[in-house]
UniProtKB/TrEMBL annotation:
SUPFAM superfamilies: Kelch motif
Domain of life: Eukaryota
UniProt-listed Pfam families: Kelch_1 (PF01344)
Organism, scientific name: Gossypium aridum
TM region positions: none
Alphabetical list of InterPro entries matching this protein: F-box/kelch-repeat_ARATH (IPR050354), Kelch-typ_b-propeller (IPR015915), Kelch_1 (IPR006652)
Designated name of the protein: F-box/kelch-repeat protein
Coiled coil spans: none
C-alpha cells in the first residue's frame, strides 16, 4: 500500500505476521522544523502493544510535495511529487529510498522514474513497485527493486478514454492489482495480473469507488459517499461478479470527526477484524 504526503497524517503500509496485521507505518505532518517548515515524520504503530514509535526518520527537505510513499521489504520509498519553480508547480521523477536496517545512512536517491509524476498512485508487490497516474505522457511504470530500473507498464485499451481512479488496490491472493477506470461514459473495474503482465476486465459497469476501499477474500468493500450527509457501504463479490446486500449490526454515525483525514483507508487486520 501507499500514502500521499499531502495528508497531515496518513497510513501507508502494514507489518504482517501469520496472516494478521500487527502494526502500521504512517506519516505525520503535524510538526514543524526549527525554521518553521512543516516536516514529514515516519512512525510505526504497534497494534499489539498499542504504542507509537519515536520518529523513525524524517523525509529530507529535497523530497517534493505530493510525493507518494510505499514500503517494500526493509525499504521505504518516496516517489514523484511536485516542486514550485518560477511560480509554476512542476512534476518530478525523483525517487528516494530509506533502509530500516541502516537508518544511519538516511535517505538516498535511486534511479528516477521514466516520466515526472505529481501525486502518483503506487504499491509494491513481489519485489516491484507499480506506479500509476500523475503523468499525461505515460500510463504507468514498474520499478524493479533488485535491478534499480524502470520499465513502462502495459496499457489496457480502456485507458485511451478513461482515467484511473484513486486508489489502486492490491489483491495479493490472486497476484493482481485492482484498478478502477472512470470516464465520461464508462466506469469499469479491471485487474492487472502482474505475473503474466495482462489486463482483464472484471466488470464493464462498476459505478462505485472511493478512497475508502478494501478487499477481503472474494468481497470488495467500498465506502460510497453520495453527499456530505448521505453515505453507504457497498460490497461486491469479485468471483461471482455481483453486488451483495449489506446490513449493519450496530448503530453508527454518518458524521466523521471534522479532523478525520479525507478518504481514510479501509484496513483489514486479519482474523475477522
Amino acid at each position: 500500500m501507499s500514502g500521499n504526503t499531502r495528508n497531515c497524517s496518513s497510513y501507508f503500509d502494514a507489518h504482517q505476521r501469520d496472516g494478521e496485521i500487527k502494526g502500521l507505518f504512517f506519516l505525520d505532518k503535524t510538526r514543524r522544523d526549527t525554521e518553521g517548515k512543516r516536516r514529514t515524520d515516519l512512525h510505526f504503530l504497534d497494534l499489539e502493544r498499542g504504542e507509537i514509535s519515536d520518529v523513525l526518520s524524517s523525509t529530507p527537505p529535497d523530497v517534493p510535495l505530493g510525493s507518494t510513499v510505499v514500503t517494500c521489504g526493509n525499504h521505504v520509498y518516496t516517489i514523484g511529487g511536485k516542486i514550485l519553480r518560477g511560480g509554476i508547480l512542476r512534476s518530478l521523477n525523483h525517487v528516494f529510498r530509506f533502509d530500516f536496517k541502516h537508518a544511519e545512512r538516511g535517505w538516498r536517491k535511486v534511479s528516477s522514474m521514466l516520466y515526472p509524476r505529481g501525486l502518483p498512485e503506487a504499491l509494491a508487490a513481489q519485489g516491484k513497485i507499480y506506479v500509476f497516474k500523475g503523468s499525461r505522457d505515460c500510463f504507468g511504470e514498474v520499478y524493479d527493486i533488485s535491478g534499480d530500473s524502470w520499465v513502462p507498464l502495459c496499457v489496457p485499451s480502456i485507458a485511451e478514454y478513461s482515467g484511473v481512479s484513486r486508489p489502486v488496490l492490491l489483491d495479493s491472493s490472486r497476484s493482481r492489482i485492482l484498478v478502477h477506470f472512470s470516464g465520461d461514459r464508462y466506469r469499469s473495474l479491471y485487474a492487472y495480473y502482474y505475473n503474466d503482465k495482462s489486463w482483464v476486465c472484471l466488470d464493464p459497469k462498476f459505478p462505485y469507488w472511493s478512497l475508502t476501499v478494501g478487499i477481503v477474500g472474494n468481497v470488495l468493500y467500498v465506502f460510497h459517499e453520495i453527499s456530505d450527509e448521505v453515505c453507504s457501504w457497498k460490497a461486491y463479490d469479485v468471483q461471482d461478479k455481483k453486488w451483495l446486500p449489506v446490513k449493519w449490526l450496530t448503530e453508527f454515525s454518518l458524521h466523521q470527526p471534522f479532523t478525520a483525514p479525507v478518504g481514510a483507508p479501509l484496513i483489514h487486520l486479519g482474523n475477522d477484524k
